Structure formats: structure tokens, C-alpha cells
Amino acid sequence: MEHQEIMTTYLAAFIRQLSAMGIRYAVVSPGSRSTPIAMLLAEHPDFQIYMDIDERSAAFFALGLAKEKRKPVVLLCTSGTAAANYYPAVAEANISRVPLIVLTADRPHELRNVGAPQAIDQIRLYGTHVKWFEEMPLPEAEEEVLQFVRQTAARAVVTALQQPAGPVHLNFPLREPLVPVLKPSPFAGEVPVPAIENFSGTLRLSEETVEIVAKEIREKDRGLIICGPIDIPGFAEAVVALSEKTGYPVLADPLSQLRSGRHGKERIIENYDSLLKDPKWAGRLAPNVVIRFGAMPVSKPLTLLLKKVKTAAHYIVDGGNGWRDPVKRGTTVVYSDEIDFCKKLSNIIVMNPVSEWFTMWEKLNQQARQIVTASLEVEKTFDEGKTVTELAAALPDGSTLFVGNSMPIRDVDTFFQATDKKIRILANRGANGIDGVVSSATGVSAGCGKAFLLIGDLSFFHDLNGLLMTKMHKLNLCVILINNNGGGIFSFLPQADEPEKFEQLFGTPTDLAFEYAVKMYGGSYIQPQNWDQFRAALSEYKGGLQVIEVRTNRAKNVETHRKIWSQVSREMERYFQGEQQ
Amino acid sequence: MEHQEIMTTYLAAFIRQLSAMGIRYAVVSPGSRSTPIAMLLAEHPDFQIYMDIDERSAAFFALGLAKEKRKPVVLLCTSGTAAANYYPAVAEANISRVPLIVLTADRPHELRNVGAPQAIDQIRLYGTHVKWFEEMPLPEAEEEVLQFVRQTAARAVVTALQQPAGPVHLNFPLREPLVPVLKPSPFAGEVPVPAIENFSGTLRLSEETVEIVAKEIREKDRGLIICGPIDIPGFAEAVVALSEKTGYPVLADPLSQLRSGRHGKERIIENYDSLLKDPKWAGRLAPNVVIRFGAMPVSKPLTLLLKKVKTAAHYIVDGGNGWRDPVKRGTTVVYSDEIDFCKKLSNIIVMNPVSEWFTMWEKLNQQARQIVTASLEVEKTFDEGKTVTELAAALPDGSTLFVGNSMPIRDVDTFFQATDKKIRILANRGANGIDGVVSSATGVSAGCGKAFLLIGDLSFFHDLNGLLMTKMHKLNLCVILINNNGGGIFSFLPQADEPEKFEQLFGTPTDLAFEYAVKMYGGSYIQPQNWDQFRAALSEYKGGLQVIEVRTNRAKNVETHRKIWSQVSREMERYFQGEQQ
């Protein structure tokens, strides 16, 4: 066989196996060395190809798409720094447990480390940030090699999906000429190859072990179920059932997917961030048992409360057997499927579902909700908190909302109230970067057809390139851009008291008229002048790229937030005084 | 001492030592964890701070600045994916030997791998792509630790600069509170600390070793001195002198800094790319000795010629003791300072400076130059080759030109003729990525006051964010944007014959109106309609950001290039026929 035939046979075997394993999406960046893989992916009838010129954007796009689909997405780029551009998204995927199959084309061995163009050391390029790395062999058409290639494709899919899910990296050395043989198509009229099946067990505790947990819980009446970012279908029902059996309220991070949906919302506490802002109430709200699911919640006051509580039994339940305990108060780390754990524990516990403890949380939560809602209702000027409540009200049932890091996710945490509408809320909360957010949201929109994105101006700027995908692939993304002209989060930090260097180092105002960028990408741009116009822009959104820019003021925003929190604190004072009488 | 005082003492010792070692520039991205380093850098009177919101851009900006200054530049960012964004520029700096001092702030040990926010594994984050990594200790104010910190700062500078120069990475774990003590300023009224001196030897061959080289050379009359990318002051004079003594012509890559400047241009051959395009003349032009300096030249025909010549003595001279021989024809790898090698060899060799061999190259070079010049002179429509010749004519003496990868650097190679004007030509030719080019050029402009950038549309799009620095720091960058709406280089590759998938996978037209982006960044935008307008735009450039967009056609461009090369080949046919008669 000729070189090009051998290469085609070898790569076709790989791609056919990816397809047999159910992979359907590939995000590809143009390049020379990756030519045969790109052309064969495009030739195979099963793959939808998203071309993305900027590899950093491409990787975040794939991350968003994989997150939305809960399935691995293929990434493909050429050799050299192109592959290094994937690094931020790969690191994020690794921590936030998103399955990615990263394919990098590489120079063959004889062109490595000898000054050849576009060659960097790609062996273990992503270091500890991938679950698995494999240096692929040079193309051969021997059956043993082809079977290795099929096995590796299957294994890449299984490994990326295995809990905790994450990115895997395969590096393909390829020689010129790089054009594969497509006539006849290697996939034409083919008998489908079978997948290499993977039967994978689930972490389940024995009845005896669950009884140990139950025994401890039965004695404790001040329990909290705390749910951080977690996205497992069926978890909401299971954890609400556990709450009913234990009588413990459920503190639900916006990324726990518990604040919205059809499940019962009576046991969901979503205003704990406001309730815990004033540390003087920490004693009253301190639990004696904590059951945590998912990653750490975004709320800093909650983190501080957990830190203070040194004597509580503190369970950290993780089906991906992580040790996600930055507060270091965990007394038992439970490696178990979360739903199985909830069900088994619910089966053997019967406590008072509306204990005094539960009722206190319920009442305080309602009060906080009223204060937040009432304060924001009368707010005439553009405010970041009110943007969240207005957005929450406007989002249609069944929407998907992507939330930027830094301030937006904190604002959503504080101000997004529980609702029966189904709203899936997603964010990049592995490493919490402000990078790649536009691209991730765009990838999500590719997955579910339409997405909303709430984002700050620095983060929006950081990933402006990500908007190109909405143009090139006709995707539907409605961006709610909160523009406070700089890094709003720093106004909440101690450096805000050093006005001399503050604007230079932290405020970093860019004074950009984003309208131009939106026009360049063929989107529509609206800068509402009042809340009515804001609501109208949201409700009239039909599709394509639309950017609604809300101009806010960093100083004013800090003020509004602090005002609400002090109102909440005063209300709590009243509550606890009334209790004492 | 309090935590903040200790942290301030520790970091001030580090920064003071960087200053003592002569470091003057820091490129900083906003972030929380890096707060104390950023504030202390800003507090120190010696540092010029460039704030850059996008860390990928920041790293390429620092790369450009360091390249221009031939001095290390400090990079600083916060923890998490921010640091991963540096990866492409770090990989480029490592191969192209640009000194960078990368400082990443990190979470302290107790917040690593435990699910804390904005924490990724930063230990050896850049793998094999940095020269040196050091995990710094937590801040302490013990004298022994402070002395270690000073030593590490000094060593970072020395290591980054030591041949081959490159990036180093120091990772700083820092605890909250993160605001340093600036009142009183730790740098106020201070006695300057002494630098830790470094006396570093130069690689020099013994007289005996040089005589071995000279002995071989004296017997060979068909020698070529080939200079790839190299940027060492004084090298031009030394290598021209060597050419005069040996009678060998100097084939000069545009990045060898030999095509322009005050040194003698009589011995410089710059049209070898056109001369060697038609492989049928390879036999006539084949050398029996090759002396190579610098990285591999960009010219593919030259690479192919070197591959064909299997019996020539082939010296690869590298003061950075690399083994940069992708054609694998090196017979002797010389680790020596390039200038010292040229001088020593020149001292002991006297051959005919205008041998038949030299005269042949000289004549052919002149003929090729005439053909290129004449063909382009009559070209009325916008053409990529003519853009280069027009630009070369318009560039003022003393200019700096940054050249994008993919087609622009190849066009400059083919069409940029030798000139007595001093024009420094720079590019990212380590890994040859199309990423980060705008930012690198912007960094160069920060270093030398004003820069010109020749770039293609995909590369320009890839790093559009880089333009923000021209706005935020009032830099002078004149961009000549060659917009052929997609990946022009692929039209020269075999996949161009697969029209079905070509535009989707390789052409990737974006149809972007870049005028909007330029406006957003406060630049001026010109789209000339004819060559007169193009010339006027260049000659009237006063400063700030200016983008001159030249619209070309990919297919037409391939045609023009090929027409010129076939003319050159016909002319060579005539030359060699005449010679035979």
C-alpha cells in the first residue's frame, strides 16, 4: 500500500470506532498537519463538524457543547502552539469533569526537536490536566496496529466519560503527503463496526455503611444538606426526598440545578448567601451535621460558616471520588453515587420533616427573598442584582442560562430565586476563569439550540473571538452584558481601599464600545435605557446573536448589594429577638 | 511581624532584586491572588507596567517586547486558567529563545487539589517548555529565606538570558489577606541593593578546531553560507567578512537581519527562494559545502535543495548549542558563538572572493530580482507579493517590521529585496503559530516606539484582542492587513485539489468587516482602492493604531506567484544554456 492509503486506513479505523462509540460532534481548527483527520471526520456521515479558527475558543466551545450534552466532544488541531491554546479549557474540563477527546496532529519523530517549523514538544503537553495521554504510533495498516487504534478510540471515549469525567489527549504523528484517499470513501457502503462495549460499575455503599451514617444523623437535629455545582439527572428528586426524611433544609447553589425545575421547591433554601453575610448570626445558623454534594458552592459566607463549625459531622459525598473539601472540615468523605446514597439513606431514616430548625431556615429564607425582591423592585437605575431578577423572570420555561465568572455567578447566587420553570444554569466553575466564557456559552447553544449568557465586560472582552462561531454556524445566543467598565469584583476586595493604584491594576477600564464588535459578527445590539426596554429586548429575542448591554456602575453596585445585606441582617435581628421573647 | 508585613518584605526583596538585575518591564493581568506582586511592581519606581486583560495577549506582548529589547520581561498573572493562557507564548519563547520571567500567583498548599476556587495544578505548568521552574516558598521574613528569594530573582534573570535564552517560571503561593503594606513604601528612600553578578563565558572554538574547518573549506569552491533567523548585533559584518574570505555567497533569510542595513549587500543573495522553486536547477546550484547560522530559513525550496545535497560538508553553527537540523544533513554541529566563529575562520582563510560560483549566484540573484520587480511593477490589482515590495519601498529608514506567519513571512521571503535602509524584521518563527502575532507586534512597538505589522486575516482575527493594548497604552502600530478572506496558504497545498471540503475545512472564510474592530479600539482604518492610495496611507501614517486593509484574492495570488516563478525558471534556462555554449 502507498503511504496515503495506509494513513487513510489507519485514521479511518480510528474515526469509525469513535462513531461506533456514539461520538457525534467534532470541533476542528484549520491547519495543515491535521489535514487527514479533519478530512476524514468531514467525510464520515455521523459527525457534525464545527470549524473554529481560534483554538482557545474552539476548546471552550467543545467544553460547552460537551457540558450541555453530557457526552464527549472531539477537538482537533494542528501541531505547534495551536495545541497549547487548548490548555485553559483542558484545565477547566479536568476540574469541572467535562469529557473531551483532544486530538493533536504532530510532526513525526524525525521532525521533533531538530528546529523543524511548527513543532513543539507535544508529549504530555497538558501535564497533569488530562486524565489520560497516549502518543499514537505512526500510521500503519497492520491488523494489530489497526486493532490498537480502534481500542484506543473506544478507550478514549470510555475514559473521558468514566467518573470523574474529564479530558483525554491523543497525539498523532503524521507524515506528508497529508491528503487522505477519499475516492472511494473509506466509509462508503460500510457495514457498521461494533462498539467495544464498556460495562462500568457504580460506587455504592453497603447497607451496613449507610446505617453508620444514619445512626449519626438520627441524633442530630440541626443538619444542612448543601448542594454545590452538580448536574446529574434525577438528583433533584433524590435529594429532596432525603431532605423530607431527615428534616434538613437543602442549601442549593445555582449550579446545583435545584433552584428551578418541576421538583418540590419547599425544602430549597436559596438565600443563604444573604442570610450569612453578617457573621453575627453564624452561631444561630450553625449546623451540627452537614451533608455536602457536588463541588464547593460559590457563596463565600457559606464557606466561612462551614469553616467556623468545627464540631459538626461533615459528610462530603462524591460519586467521582474527589476530595473536594477546601474548608477542611470534612469528617467523612463518602465515595458513592449521589443518587444511590440519597435513596439508601432515605430508606432507613424517618425524622421530623418540619422541625424547628427547618422552619427557622424556611422563614428566614422567605424574609430574605422578600427583602431582595422588594429592594430591587423599586430600583430604577441599572443594577447588577436587578438584572438577575429581571432575567430570571423573563427566561422562558426550558431555557438554558450560561453564567460568567467573577461577579455574574455571585449575583446569580445571591439573587436568583427558586422557580418552577425549568432553567438549566451552567457555568465554568472548575477553575472559575473569566476566560472562554463566550465560547462555552456558544457551545452550549449549539447543543441545546439556544442559550442565554450573563457576563461581565472584562470576561466578554477576554473571549470576544468566541462570537465568530455564532456567525459561522448560525447559532442562537442572547448575551446579557453587564458593563461596569472594568473588574467589578475588585471593588468588593480590600484593595479597593488603595485608590491610588486601584484603577490601573484592578479597575482596568477599557472604555470599549462593544456595539462595533457585535456588528462585526453580524449580531444585533441593544443598549436599553430603562427596565422596560430591557424586558422588551429579552422577550422579543428571536434568535441569532443578540447582545443586550446593561451599563452599570461599580461603586453604585457595591452600595446596593451592601444595603440589601444590612436590611437582611436587621430583619434577622428582629426574628431572633422575637424568638427570645 | 504580621502576615501582610512578612509578605511585603518577602516580595519586596524579590522585586528589588529584579530591578537590581536591570529588569524594567512588567506585563500584568488583573487578578486577585497576584495582588501583592502587582501592587509592589507598581510601587517600585523602576518598573514600567503594561496592564493586559487577556493573558494570552499579555504573554505574546511580553514576548514581542523582550524580543525587541533583547532583555527579559516580567509576566504576572493570577492563579488558575489565567496562567494556562500563557502557554502558547511560553512555547514560542522557548523555541525562539526569547527571555521571559513568568510569575504566577498560586493558592497556598492547603487550597490545592481540594476543590478550592480558581486553583489548578500550577507545578511545572509549562512542562518542558520553560528552561527552569521553581516553586517558591510561602512568604517568610527570615533572612535565609529573603536571601533565597533575592538569589532566585537574580538567577531567573541570568537563566532567562543565558544562551539559548528562553522563559523561566516561578510559582508563588500566597495567602490572604493579599494587600501589601505600602505605607511606608518598602522602596522609599532605599539604598540600591547590589545585583548578584553573573560572569558567563562564551562558547569559543580553539584555533586547532577552527583549522580543521578551514582545511576542509579551502578545498571546496561551491560553498554556501546560509543564514536563517538570527538577531545578534555585529553578526552581519562578521558574516559578510567571512563571505569575502571564502568566496561563498550568503543566502539570507529575511529574519537574518542581513537583507537590510548599512553593511555591504554585494554578497547577500535574497532571491534564492524564487531561484530554487523549479527543482530542475537544483543540480546547478548544489553546494559542496554549507555553513549554516541561525534557525532554519523559511524557504521550502532551500530546504529541499539541502535535502538533496547528500555529499556536502554541512556545518551547523549555533551559539545556543541547539541541534537545529530538520533536514538532517549536518555533518558537523558547531557549538560556538557565531561572531567568534566567523572571525576566527576569516582570519585563516583567503580564497577567491569572486569565484565563478559566486558570480553565478550573483547574476542569477540580480535576474530574479529584475523579474520580480518588473512583474510586480505592472501589477494593477492588489497582490500579496506587490504589497511586500510596496511596503519595503515605503518603510522609513530605521523602521521595525513585524511579519505574520503562514503566507506573510513567505511573501516577505520571496519578495523583500536587499536594501541599505535599516529595517529590523521580526516574526514568531519558533513554532510559527498564527496566534499572538498582533500582541507580539504591539509589544515590539512598545519597545521601539513604533512598529509596522504585515499580517493575514486569519492571524489578525486570531489575536484581535491584542489591539486593546494600542488603545490602553497609546502605542503606535501600523497594520498592513492582507485580507484574502481565509487561509491563503492552503491554496498552495495538495488539499486545494479537493474542492468539495476545501472551503469548509481550510479556506474558512469569515467575511468579517474588520473596520468595526478597528473602530472599537479607537484606530483609524483605510481600505485603499489602488496602489496610490496604499502608498499614501503608508506615507501619511503618523502614529496610534492604523489598519490598512488590502483585499486580495487567494486564487489570483497563487497564479501571480506561479507566473513569476516560471519566468525565473525560463530565465535560468537561458542563463545555463548560454553558459554551455
From TrEMBL, chains A, B:
Biological or metabolic pathway of the protein: Quinol/quinone metabolism; menaquinone biosynthesis; Quinol/quinone metabolism; 1,4-dihydroxy-2-naphthoate biosynthesis; 1,4-dihydroxy-2-naphthoate from chorismate: step 2/7
Cofactor: thiamine diphosphate; Mg(2+); Mn(2+)
Domain Thiamine pyrophosphate enzyme N-terminal TPP-binding: 11-124
Cofactor descriptive note: Binds 1 thiamine pyrophosphate per subunit.
Domain named Thiamine pyrophosphate enzyme TPP-binding: residues: 438-549
GO BP of this protein: menaquinone biosynthetic process
Pfam families to which the protein is assigned, alphabetical: TPP_enzyme_C, TPP_enzyme_M_2, TPP_enzyme_N
EC id: 2.2.1.9
Segments forming domain Menaquinone biosynthesis protein MenD middle: 220-403
Enzyme type, top EC level: transferase
GO terms, molecular function: 2-succinyl-5-enolpyruvyl-6-hydroxy-3-cyclohexene-1-carboxylic-acid synthase activity; magnesium ion binding; manganese ion binding; thiamine pyrophosphate binding
Catalytic activity, reaction form: isochorismate + 2-oxoglutarate + H(+) = 5-enolpyruvoyl-6-hydroxy-2-succinyl-cyclohex-3-ene-1-carboxylate + CO2
InterPro entries tied to this protein: DHS-like_NAD/FAD-binding_dom, MenaQ_synth_MenD, MenD_middle, THDP-binding, Thiamin_PyroP_enz_TPP-bd_dom, TPP_enzyme_TPP-bd
UniProt keyword terms in alphabetical order: Magnesium, Manganese, Menaquinone biosynthesis, Metal-binding, Thiamine pyrophosphate, Transferase
UniProt function note: Catalyzes the thiamine diphosphate-dependent decarboxylation of 2-oxoglutarate and the subsequent addition of the resulting succinic semialdehyde-thiamine pyrophosphate anion to isochorismate to yield 2-succinyl-5-enolpyruvyl-6-hydroxy-3-cyclohexene-1-carboxylate (SEPHCHC).
Family: Belongs to the TPP enzyme family. MenD subfamily.
PANTHER family: 2-SUCCINYL-5-ENOLPYRUVYL-6-HYDROXY-3-CYCLOHEXENE-1-CARBOXYLATE SYNTHASE, PROTEIN PHYLLO, CHLOROPLASTIC
Quaternary structure annotation from Swiss-Prot or TrEMBL: Homodimer.
Protein name, per record: 2-succinyl-5-enolpyruvyl-6-hydroxy-3-cyclohexene-1-carboxylate synthase
Source organism (scientific name): Heyndrickxia coagulans (Weizmannia coagulans)
